[in-house]
Specification:
Layout (H helix, E strand, L loop, with lengths): L21 E6 L3 E6 L8 E4 H12 L10 H6 L3
Antiparallel strand pairs: 1-2, 2-3
């Protein structure tokens, strides 16, 4: 809850339909809550809007693409 109201969780329209997603919700004091959609009652990570924005921009620019490839792909193209 944020300020006594339930959080409005959102996920990207590009998210996996099998429920393997990250959900975000706006909370007070310019912070964002993040959770795994598979575990809605599980742990929540809270970060500043600035930090979440930096992460999203980095992901959009491909800075973390190597983390999503398997070992054989990384060995063939170690970018």
């Amino acid at each position: 809850m944020s300020n006594g109201h339930p959080l409005r969780w959102r996920k990207s329209s590009a998210s996996n339909p099998n429920g393997n997603c990250v959900e975000l919700a706006e909370i007070a004091d310019r912070h964002v809550a993040m959770r795994n959609s598979r575990y809605p009652t599980g742990p929540v990570v809270v970060s500043s809007r600035a930090a979440v924005g930096a992460f999203v921009r980095g992901a959009r620019n491909g800075e973390f693409d190597d983390l999503t490839r398997d070992a054989a792909e990384r060995d063939a193209d170690p970018r």
